[in-house]
Design goal:
The structure holds two protein chains of two kinds. Chain A is an alpha/beta fold. Chain A has 13 helices and twelve strands. The longest helix of chain B is centred in the last third of the chain and has 22 residues. The chains are: A alpha/beta, B alpha/beta. At the A-B interface, helix 3 and helix 4 of A face helix 1, helix 5 and helix 7 of B.
Chain lengths: 361, 225
């Protein structure tokens, strides 16, 4: 419950070494950010194992958002490796980095500065036990982000709960308990329906307005029928109230629904990018393949080069471009201009999903 | 890209930092910046500002003719720092790096002074002692360290009273600017533990801000390891 209430707020866990179980000199070393919820889930997922967990400063924000927004970088990882004294506690130098941090953490920078051998972990921390059993090797399926039942339920709660409370209050003020319940239920129903549909119908781009309109209309219709059945006092004013509630809900969700899922580029981003592979520069290092959360890229073992196999799934996170040692990947804007890899490395997303925040090296 | 809208709005914002800090300290903080620069900066002196944030101390030092390098881990803060007008004399350069990366950028004994204002309190205890030891190695022999940070009163009861008294202003400041500060438990003890000499509390600003000055021991081989 506490986790849910705090879901949308930055919440800082103290940084530094956290020992899980009774780790020894050969135990794995894993880096994560200092969003309290992440650290707590990490401990739960790794219960019964012995791990040195290095909590790096991500500003109390989850790894993906923090890395994308410039709050979680290789500087933070170098800092926690050096200041935690982990080098004196283990005999190996393998360290697992969070895959979803690949938009901000340059793996090769960490290796250069610390002498450690960083490798990417799975996209979801729930898969860590599974990956540890395979000596740190991440199966292809574990590199992809999922938007599972649990994630959907969480997003529904954080969106629908405050909306239903406010909507219910307004319903109570303009009508009575019946109107309050109807408004709240309509809002919850719309939110549930929308998150259930993510990945199944168009929810990014202009298509989302059509989807949201249909969902909202169905919900209002349903609530209308239900209210007619249970109450004798249903008036045209109540119908207006329901309509306003449904429009407000759909409107709020339309602002950045894609951005709250891991499947779409933020709806608020103004620039559309396409990822481009310069095959002649590719040396088959395949760093990009191990960090792509959407399975866009694949290593072709025959020609020993990477190929783009599923461009439509790309969410323009830029992780592949940031990690490529040969600068063989880059973005192209809709207007045809090229965005060089160095620009991607030195800019981060701002609130509106545009690459405006500059970072230097 | 997953942009949790609320989280993004509520995260600390570099643009609002200066205003937030002023609100919390009732304008006293400008006096702190000047006081640090008075001790640490002289014409031609090389000054390192650890955790320079939006660059106020760095600029105050440069205005006294010093050649200043400000270092911060936060790209957004540095962006604000770089946008401020450069002082007519002295020089300022800003570098993005963690406090633990200082020695990747600078040679041993390459600074006359090291300053740090409201920055050690943002670090973990591990990072704090690492940064102070690194600063020790970067200072020339007899070089000067000046830090200023928020402190808590001694004693559990007085600490609680202090927190309660500050609660309204801290809450309002956070709501308006998403800026807040933390405290360093004992700055004097911290600096002494890192191997400095002549550690003294130089000045207090109100009940909450303390400035500490210290020196690296003179002569080469003043190792703190």
């Amino acid at each position: 419950m506490r986790d849910l209430l705090l879901r949308l707020f930055p919440h800082r866990h103290p940084t530094g070494l956290v020992e899980i179980g009774a780790p020894g000199r050969e135990s794995p070393v894993i880096v994560t950010g200092n969003y309290t919820l992440t650290v707590r889930r990490m401990k739960r997922a790794l219960r019964g194992r012995d791990v040195h967990l290095l909590v790096a400063d991500s500003g109390g924000i989850n790894v993906w958002c923090a890395a994308g927004g410039g709050h979680f970088t290789h500087h933070d990882v170098v800092s926690v490796i050096r200041t935690s004294g982990i080098s004196d506690l283990v005999d190996h130098r393998r360290v697992m980095l969070p895959q979803l941090g690949a938009t901000g953490i340059e793996r090769r920078y960490v290796a250069d500065k610390t002498g450690w051998d960083p490798h990417w972990g799975p996209a979801h921390l729930e898969d860590l036990p599974h990956v540890l059993d395979r000596a740190g090797r991440v199966p292809v399926a574990d590199r992809k982000v999922r938007f599972g039942l649990r994630d959907r339920a969480e997003m529904i709660t954080v969106w629908a709960l405050p909306m239903a409370l406010i909507g219910g209050g307004i319903g109570l003020a303009f009508g009575g308990p019946a109107q309050a319940a109807a408004v709240a239920l309509t809002m919850v129903a719309i939110t549930c329906a929308v998150f259930a549909l993510v990945g199944r119908v168009p929810l990014s781009g202009p298509g989302r307005f059509v989807t949201l309109g249909v969902v909202a209309s169905v919900a209002v219709g349903g609530a209308w029928v239900a209210m007619e059945a249970v109450t004798t006092t249903f008036s045209s004013r109540d119908a207006v109230l329901l309509g306003v509630a449904a429009t407000a809900t759909a409107g709020l969700l339309a602002v950045d629904l894609p951005g709250t899922t891991p499947w779409y580029p933020s709806a608020m981003a103004k620039d559309a990018f396409t990822v481009e592979l310069l095959s002649e520069s590719c040396t088959g290092a395949a760093d990009c393949v191990t960090v792509c959360p959407r399975g866009v890229l694949r290593m072709n073992g025959v020609i020993r080069k990477v190929e783009i196999v599923d461009p439509d799934s790309c969410i323009q996170c830029g992780a592949c471009i940031v990690q490529c040692p040969e600068n063989a990947l880059r973005f192209r804007r809709a207007d045809g201009r090229v965005v060089e890899p160095e620009t991607i490395r030195t800019t981060r997303l701002n609130l509106l999903g545009s690459r405006t925040i500059e970072v230097s090296h | 890209m997953s942009s949790y809208v609320l989280m993004k709005i509520l995260e600390s914002s570099p643009e609002r930092y200066d205003r937030g800090i002023r609100m919390l300290n009732g304008g006293k903080v400008d006096a702190v910046y000047e006081a640090i620069a008075d001790i640490a900066a002289r014409p031609g002196g090389r000054v390192l500002d650890i955790g320079c944030g939006t660059g106020n101390v760095s600029i105050a030092c440069a205005q006294r003719g010093a050649e200043v390098t400000g270092v911060d881990i936060d790209a957004g803060m540095l962006e604000v720092a770089r946008s401020k007008p450069p002082p007519p004399i002295g020089s300022v350069e800003f570098v993005q790096a963690a406090a633990a990366e200082l020695e990747d950028h600078f040679a041993p004994e390459s600074f006359d002074s090291v300053v740090s204002c409201l920055a050690l309190s943002e670090m973990s205890p591990d990072e704090r002692s690492y940064a102070l030891r690194a600063a020790h190695r970067l200072l020339r022999p007899d070089g000067r360290l000046v830090i200023a940070d928020e402190v808590l009163p001694a004693g559990r009861f007085r600490r609680l009273a202090h927190r309660l008294a500050r609660f309204p202003s801290v809450t309002i400041t956070w709501l308006l600017t998403q800026t807040t500060t933390r405290a360093v438990p004992d700055p004097v003890e911290l600096v002494m533990a890192a191997g400095y000499q002549h550690v003294e509390m130089a000045e207090r600003f109100g009940r909450t801000l303390m400035m500490v000055s210290a020196r690296r021991p003179p002569g080469p081989g003043g190792s703190n390891a």
